[in-house]
Design goal:
The protein is α/β, with parallel strands linked by helices. It has 6 helices and 17 strands. The chain starts with about 20 loop residues before the first strand and ends in a 14-residue tail after the last helix. The relative contact order is 0.19. The chain binds zinc ion.
Length: about 290
């Protein structure tokens, strides 16, 4: 082959090292950057100050961020950010306002008041899917999604809840498509493309830098393990760890609920703070999204 036709392509599989051109306007609470757009969520609460947690979700839908926000608006729920599969970001609620994304649950000293203490980030992703007898891929609404890319995974809380209850009337639609006994053990999960994962990493890295109050990055399924499965096993929250200041952000650890558990990431002073400074905003339970 003539030399001029040879192309050397270097593929860098590592995520970017910084938060790129993303920035937060601390006055307006808006994210800025080339790939950032805005579409206001209708449902939003009062002022949010000193958020402690970032809660990661998936949309459980096939649509992009714009469609997801439109769907949220119909239910008057909301999220600060929705990240598309190509890594572009849509902001629905400024970081200075409470979004309705987490609902009821428990995480550390937060009981049913996660919305007023957290930033919610939605990732466009269909979630769990199952193969029917014809090897077609069926999503949790009972719709064929054979064009989607998946990976195998078992949800860490698979044993904690009843899939039939979780999917409600959609469970029968999944079964009607020829899926035998759908479970959350050894099922398929839509992958999060690199561009989308990198965008989450950049955003989280930026947010923990600009909001020193943030101490945790968790999944919705960590806060509400009995009723939520997002973001699920296809998103490795641990991968966010390398982009946040060490010793500060605590990610989900399977054994965190065990008595006497201390994460290697916790500092003693932080644990002491957890016990002594229980001054957080009034509860805002109730509405949440997928
Ligand atoms: Zn969620």
């Amino acid at each position: 082959m003539p030399a001029e036709h040879l192309q050397l392509q270097i593929v860098d599989v590592r995520p970017p090292l910084s938060f790129g051109d993303l920035e937060v306007n601390m006055r307006t609470g808006l994210l800025t950057g080339r790939n950032v757009g805005y579409l206001g969520c209708v449902g939003r609460g009062g002022y949010l100050s000193g958020p402690s947690v970032i809660v990661i979700h998936f949309t459980a839908g096939p649509g992009d961020a714009r469609k997801s926000i439109q769907a949220m608006n119909q239910r008057r729920v909301s999220s600060h950010l929705v990240i598309n599969r190509d890594g572009s970001i849509m902001q629905g609620v400024p970081f200075t306002r409470v979004a309705f994304h987490a609902g009821k649950g428990v995480w550390w000293h937060f009981h049913d008041n996660m919305n007023s203490n957290s930033i919610g980030i939605e990732l466009c992703n269909l979630g769990p899917m199952w193969r029917n007898r014809k090897r077609e891929l069926i999503d949790s609404y009972g719709i064929k999604r054979s064009e989607r890319t998946t990976e195998w995974g078992t949800h860490k809380n698979a044993g904690k809840f009843d899939l039939k209850k979780l999917l409600d009337k959609n469970y029968d639609k999944v079964v009607a498509q020829g899926v035998e006994k759908p479970t959350l053990k050894d099922c398929e999960w839509e992958v999060f493309p690199d561009e989308q994962r990198w965008a989450v990493q950049r955003v989280c890295s930026l947010l923990v830098t600009r909001f020193p109050s943030i101490k945790h990055i968790i999944g919705h399924d960590d806060y509400a393990p009995e009723r939520k499965i997002d973001p699920g096993p296809a998103l490795r929250l641990e991968s966010l760890l390398s982009w946040v200041p060490s010793g500060r952000v605590i990610l989900y650890q399977d054994d965190h609920r065990r008595p006497g558990y201390t994460s290697s990431l916790d500092s003693t002073s932080y644990l002491r703070n957890l016990v002594t400074s229980r001054t957080f905003a009034a509860g805002n339970p109730g509405r949440d999204i997928a």
